[in-house]
């Protein structure tokens, strides 16, 4: 099939690479001229494992365009951003602009797929917009569930494919199934709004699991219990499951914070009090301060102390720093007078007056304390005896409960986790 993807961000580029791998011809359009120029040169503007390789392998089927082109696409995807506005509501202006640009050109043979995470009712509104323009456009809501850092794997092996359709649409499901032929996953077919709600509910539930375990971490700390044992102990219950029970300095990224708040706002608009979402957000908003208090208690004062913060990205295997708890931690430690030196294998610190080390050794050397803020594998695999030699102090603070506690203690270092007594 011939596919046009509008918005060459994480979702757009991953979708493009995967559809090209499946044998489709893909035209990616973005309004960011520099991004398109980079893509045309063969540079991938984001770090996502496996993405560059897929682009190289399937370059004969991948095309990049700056201005919106209206190729004879069978399917047009909207993958533009929907960030939170100043009140926490989803800003759908990028979606609206993309739809406005498409309006004079789109024809009824084409299928329009909305992959961006959009507020409940947006797909219906888009359908009605075209109807008012005299066009009966087949609009499909096909939310995306990929995680950054494993986006290609998640797209090739998704847990499910959610397809939202209008009741009278008897054409689009088979088109979507043909498009995704080769990907084996159960299809959940629902209404346009149903698909939108599934996306928000999935993110809200996952974020709630994290806030739940972070609350348990605070309780574990108070009672001298190890939250890692608790997570294992409850996670083996099939009804609970082991995933998203890693306590830490809170969830971040471009999705959970904005989507939890967005769903909360949508609830208020309907006079529904979202008690659970409020709690999820409150726990996350206070988790970092709670942990900084613990760091302060551990280190005494922070003034002039040299603290190596390992991790800048909001999670490992990405260079994305949007809503990164690691960046917030770096800012807080800096504000407390600490002499912070940050490190990340891929992400770059912007607009913060803190030095970023080029190598791990540079970050660790002479540090009074070392804090892991992002659970990159290379931090988990550090040689702790060597770390001890390099540091001035002996405190290792594991903000993600991801480090080998025994090995660290055996190296003569003090280990401080999250909710670990
Ligand atoms: N990042 C993720 O992991 C992820 C996962 C699932 C769903 N989502 C959702 O997918 C959507 C996209 O997220 P993202 O992280 O890929 O966003 P992004 O910010 O990385 O990329 C969006 C791109 O769209 C471009 N754009 C904006 N308006 C445009 C227009 N009118 N015409 C052409 N290009 C335009 C921007 O220049 C940018 O390159 C959001 O709704 C997000 O909530 C994101
Ligand atoms: O047990 C856990 C798991 C994750 N996190 C944190 O939660 C955040 C989000 O992590 P993750 O969900 O792995 O990354 P995202 O790329 O933000 O993916 C989420 O958001 C996407 C955008 O909507 C969805 O598509 C994905 O399904 C959903 O997992 C990160 O800060 C993680 O450090 C924890 O603190 N504890």
Automatic annotation (TrEMBL):
Q: Identify the keywords attached in UniProt to this record, alphabetized.
A: NAD, Oxidoreductase
| Active site per UniProt | 255
Please provide, alphabetically and separated by semicolons, the GO molecular function terms listed in this UniProt record.
NAD binding; UDP-glucose 6-dehydrogenase activity
Q: Which Pfam families match?
A: UDPG_MGDP_dh, UDPG_MGDP_dh_C, UDPG_MGDP_dh_N
SUPFAM superfamilies according to UniProt:
6-phosphogluconate dehydrogenase C-terminal domain-like (SSF48179), NAD(P)-binding Rossmann-fold domains (SSF51735), UDP-glucose/GDP-mannose dehydrogenase C-terminal domain (SSF52413)
The UniProt entry, under InterPro entries, shows: 6-PGluconate_DH-like_C_sf (IPR008927), NAD(P)-bd_dom_sf (IPR036291), UDP-Glc/GDP-Man (IPR017476), UDP-Glc/GDP-Man_DH_C (IPR014027), UDP-Glc/GDP-Man_DH_C_sf (IPR036220), UDP-Glc/GDP-Man_DH_dimer (IPR014026), UDP-Glc/GDP-Man_DH_N (IPR001732), UDPglc_DH_bac (IPR028357)
Alphabetically, which GO biological process terms does the record hold? polysaccharide biosynthetic process; UDP-glucuronate biosynthetic process
Residues that hold NAD(+) according to the record: 30, 35, 82, 117, 148, 258, 322
Q: Which residues form the UDP-glucose/GDP-mannose dehydrogenase C-terminal domain?
A: 308-405
* TM spans (from-to): none
Catalyzed reaction equations: UDP-alpha-D-glucose + 2 NAD(+) + H2O = UDP-alpha-D-glucuronate + 2 NADH + 3 H(+)
Name the pathway: Nucleotide-sugar biosynthesis; UDP-alpha-D-glucuronate biosynthesis; UDP-alpha-D-glucuronate from UDP-alpha-D-glucose: step 1/1
Q: Where does substrate bind?
A: 145-148, 199, 244-248, 252, 315
What EC number(s) does this enzyme carry? Answer: 1.1.1.22
Family to which this protein belongs: Belongs to the UDP-glucose/GDP-mannose dehydrogenase family.
Q: What is this protein called?
A: UDP-glucose 6-dehydrogenase
**Record organism:** Anoxybacillus thermarum
């Amino acid at each position: 099939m011939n596919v046009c993807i509008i918005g060459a961000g994480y979702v757009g580029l991953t979708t493009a690479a995967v559809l090209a791998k499946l044998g489709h011809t893909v035209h990616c359009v973005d309004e960011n001229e520099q991004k398109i120029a980079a893509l045309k040169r063969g540079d991938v503007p984001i770090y996502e494992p496996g993405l560059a390789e897929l682009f190289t392998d399937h370059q004969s089927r991948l095309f990049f365009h700056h201005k919106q082109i209206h190729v004879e696409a069978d399917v047009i995807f909207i993958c533009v951003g929907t960030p939170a506005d100043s009140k926490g509501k989803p800003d759908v202006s990028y979606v609206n602009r993309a739809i406005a640009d498409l309006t004079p050109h789109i024809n009824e043979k084409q299928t329009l797929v909305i992959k961006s995470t959009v507020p409940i009712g947006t797909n219906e509104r888009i359908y009605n917009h075209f109807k008012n323009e005299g066009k009966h456009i087949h609009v499909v809501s096909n939310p995306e569930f990929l995680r950054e850092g494993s986006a290609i794997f998640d797209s090739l092996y998704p847990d499910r494919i959610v397809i939202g359709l209008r009741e009278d649409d008897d054409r689009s499901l088979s088109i979507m199934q043909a498009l995704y032929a080769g990907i084996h996953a159960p299809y959940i077919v629902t209404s346009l709004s149903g698909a939108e709600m599934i996306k928000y509910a999935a993110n809200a539930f996952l974020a709630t699991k994290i806030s739940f375990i972070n609350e348990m971490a605070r309780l574990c700390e108070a009672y001298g219990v190890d939250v890692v044992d608790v997570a294992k102990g409850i996670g083996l219950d099939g009804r609970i499951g082991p995933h998203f029970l890693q306590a830490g300095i809170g969830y971040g990224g471009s999705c959970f914070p904005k989507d939890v708040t967005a769903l909360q706002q949508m609830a208020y608009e309907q006079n529904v009090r979202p008690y659970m979402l409020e709690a999820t957000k409150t726990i996350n908003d206070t988790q970092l301060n709670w942990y900084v208090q613990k760091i302060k208690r551990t280190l005494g004062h922070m003034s002039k102390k040299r603290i190596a913060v390992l991790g800048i990205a909001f999670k490992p295997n990405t260079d994305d720093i949007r809503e990164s708890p690691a960046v917030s931690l770096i800012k807080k430690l800096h504000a407390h007078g600490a002499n912070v030196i940050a490190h990340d294998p891929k992400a770059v610190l912007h607009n913060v007056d803190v030095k970023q080390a080029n190598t791990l050794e540079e970050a660790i050397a002479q540090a009074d304390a070392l804090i892991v803020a992002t659970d990159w594998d290379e931090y988990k695999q550090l040689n702790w005896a060597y770390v001890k030699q390099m540091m001035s102090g002996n405190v290792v603070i594991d903000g993600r409960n991801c480090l080998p506690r025994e090995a660290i203690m055996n190296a003569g270092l003090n280990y401080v986790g999250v909710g670990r007594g």
